[in-house]
Amino acid sequence: MPVRKLKEFLDSQNIHYSSIPHSTAYTAQGIAAVTHISGKELAKTVIVKLDNELAMAVLPASQQVDMDMLKAATGAKSAATASEREFREKFPDCETGAMPPFGNLYNMKVFVEESLTKDREIAFNAGSHNELIRLAFVDYLRAVNPTVLKFGTVRTARAA
Question: What are the helix (H) ranges across the chain?
Answer without folding.
Answer: 4-12, 28-35, 67-74, 84-87, 137-144
